[in-house]
Amino acid sequence: MRHSMCELTAAFELLAVQSPKHYPNSMKSPKKNPGKSRRYARSILAVASVAATTGLLAQAAPAAKLAICLTPPPNSRQEAFEANYQDRYTRWGWKRIQHRLVERQLEHFAEDTQRNLSLIPTQVNIDPIDGYPADNAVHPNQSGYQQIGTSIYAWLKSQL
C-alpha cells in the first residue's frame, strides 16, 4: 500500500506524541534511563521517516542511487545555543542527541543492500567553529554549507 508524504508525516507526528508505553519493545529506551524514552523514540521516528522516504523514492525510481547525509554536529559555541534556545538546550545536550542520531542512522542504513543507498558522512567534513555563525546553534554559515556540499560532491563523483 502506497502512502503520500503527508500521510506518513501525520503518522510519525501521531507516534511522537504517544506515551512510550505504546511503542514496541525495540523503540523503548534502556531500563536504566526510563526518563529519556521520549527522546529515544523521537530518534527512532526520525530514522523511520527517512527510511519511509527512501523507500518511496526507491519504489518510484528503482535504479536511482540514493544517499543520506548523516546529521552534522552543532556549533562549537555554547553562546549560540543560549542565543537560540535560552536555557532549553545546551551544546553538550544537543551534541549527545546528534551523536545518537548518527548512531541510529548507521545502525538502520549501513547494511541496506536492497536499495542503491549510500551514507554521506557530512559530520566529518564540517568545521564546528568556522562553519557556523556565532549566533546560530545548528545551521551552518556559507562556509559550513560549502563544506557539506563538498562531502556531497565527493559522493557524486564517486558514483560516476
Describe this structure in words.
The chain is built from five helices and two strands. It has 160 residues and is mostly helical. The chain has one domain (5-159). The longest helix has 24 residues, at 37-60. The chain is globular.
Head-to-tail CA distance between termini: 34 Å
SSE series: HHEHHEH
Q: How many domains?
A: 1
Oligomer state equals single chain
Query: What fraction of residues sit in β-strands?
Result: 5-15%
Whole-number radius of gyration? 17 Å
Strand elements, count: 2
Assign a percent range to the helix content: 40-55%
Mean pLDDT: 76
- Given as residue ranges, the uncertain stretches (5+ residues, pLDDT < 50) are 7-31
The 3D shape can be described as globular
Tally the helices: what do you get?
5
Overall structural class, as computed from helix and strand content, comes to mainly alpha
Strand order of the largest sheet: 1-2
What's the story with the biggest beta sheet?
2 strands, parallel
Provide keyphrases for this structure.
2 strands; 5 helices; single chain; globular; mainly alpha; 160 residues
Secondary-structure topology with pairs:
Elements (H helix, E strand, L loop, with lengths): L4 H13 L19 H24 L5 E4 L8 H8 L5 H19 L7 E4 L21 H18 L1
Parallel strand pairs: 1-2
Helix pairs in contact: 1-2, 2-4
How would you summarize what this structure contains?
51% of the residues lie in helices and 5% in strands. By secondary structure, it is mainly α. 12% of the residues are buried.
